[in-house]
Design brief:
- The protein has 276 residues and is an alpha+beta fold.
- The protein has a single domain, classed as Aminohydrolase, N-terminal nucleophile (Ntn) domain (Glutamine Phosphoribosylpyrophosphate, subunit 1, domain 1), CATH 3.60.20.
- The protein contains 7 helices and 13 strands.
- Helix 5 packs across helix 6.
- It comes from Paractinoplanes globisporus.
- InterPro entries: EgtC-like, Gamma-glu_amide_hydrolase, GATase_2_dom, Ntn_hydrolases_N.
- This is Class II glutamine amidotransferase.
C-alpha cells in the first residue's frame, strides 16, 4: 500500500529523514520491511510549513518512483522545516497521477493515508454524495484517501479532529454495511493543521497496518549519550512513521491498535479510537 512519516520539532532539512537515515523513507520506497508491498513506486509527496511565513503549507508531489525523483532530492537538501508530512505511494487501483499523490491539502490542513476502503468503487458514489457541497469542488483526484479527507472535513476535522475522523470511519462502515461489504476500513492516517499533528491507526478487521512513534528525546539521550544528533533537537521533537527509520534500540514505540495520538506543545496525547 503506502509508507508515510510525520515530523514535528526542531527545524531540520527534509533530506535528513527522506534520504539520510538507515532505513529512510526513500529506502522504504524500494525495500519496505513491514508494508504489504516491498516496493512503493507509484508516486511521492511532501507537504511542509515554514515558521512565520504563509500559513498554507507548501506541497510537492511527483508521479514517479521516489528513489528516482531528482527534483525531490534537490528540494529536500535545501528545504528546512519544523513540521512536515511525507508519503510514498503504492496504488490500490486508482491511476498513478499527481492529483492522487499524498499529502492532500485543504487550506492549512494536510492529510496522508496508508490503507484502503474495501470495494471503494462500489461505495464511492454514496461516500462522495455525503461530502459538504462547499468542499466538493476542491477534490481533484480519484482515491479513497482523498474522499476520506473530505469526509473528515465535512464531519468537523477543523473543529474536533479526533471525533471527525471517528465519524468518517463510522460513516464508511455504515455505507459499506448497506452495500453488503464487510470490514471495509483499513487505515493509518496522519493529518496536521500546522500546529498539531494527529495520527490514527484503525481497521474494521482489527489488524491494522503498522505505525510507530518516536521515544521522548530525554529518554533517548539517556539511552544513547554518544549520539550527538540528539543534542541538537528540542524535547518537543517527535516522529510518527509507518515503519522505523533505523534499528536504534528503544527509539520506536508501536501505536496501539484502534488508537489515535496527538503531537502538540506540552504533553502529547494517546487515546482509543472508536468509529461513530
Amino acid at each position: 500500500m503506502c509508507r508515510w512519516l510525520a515530523y514535528s520539532g526542531t527545524p531540520i532539512l527534509l533530506d535528513e529523514l527522506l534520504y539520510k537515515t538507515e532505513h529512510s523513507l526513500i529506502d522504504q520506497s524500494m525495500h519496505s520491511k513491514l508494508g504489504v508491498e516491498t516496493t512503493n513506486g507509484d508516486g511521492v509527496g511532501v507537504g511542509w510549513y515554514e515558521a512565520g511565513e504563509q500559513p498554507v503549507p507548501a506541497l510537492f508531489r511527483g508521479i514517479g518512483p521516489a528513489w528516482g525523483d531528482v527534483n525531490l532530492r534537490e528540494l529536500a537538501r535545501v528545504t528546512r522545516s519544523g513540521l512536515f508530512l511525507a508519503h510514498i505511494r503504492a496504488s490500490t487501483g486508482t491511476p498513478v497521477q499527481q492529483t492522487n499523490c499524498h499529502p492532500f491539502r485543504y487550506g492549512r490542513w494536510l492529510w496522508c493515508h496508508n490503507g484502503a476502503i474495501h470495494e471503494f468503487r462500489e461505495l464511492r458514489r454514496d461516500l462522495m454524495m455525503a461530502i459538504d457541497p462547499d468542499l466538493f469542488p476542491s477534490i481533484s483526484g480519484s482515491t479513497d484517501s482523498e474522499v476520506m479527507f473530505y469526509l473528515a472535513l465535512t464531519f468537523g476535522l477543523r473543529e474536533e479532529p479526533v471525533r471527525a475522523v471517528e465519524r468518517m470511519a463510522g460513516f464508511v462502515e455504515q455505507v459499506a454495511k448497506a452495500h453488503g461489504v464487510a470490514e471495509p476500513m483499513q487505515m493509518t492516517v496522519g493529518t496536521t493543521d500546522g500546529d498539531r499533528v494527529w495520527a490514527f491507526r484503525y481497521s474494521s478487521v482489527g489488524k491494522s497496518r503498522t505505525l510507530f512513534y518516536s521515544t521522548e528525546l530525554n529518554a533517548l539521550r539517556t539511552m544513547h549519550p554518544e549520539l550527538e544528533v540528539l543534542r541538537g533537537l528540542s524535547e518537543e521533537t517527535r516522529l510518527i512513521v509507518s515503519e522505523p527509520l533505523g534499528e536504534l534500540k528503544g527509539a520506536w514505540q508501536p501505536v496501539p491498535e484502534s488508537s489515535y495520538g496527538v503531537i502538540q506543545k506540552g504533553a502529547d496525547e494517546l487515546g482509543s479510537f472508536t468509529p461513530r
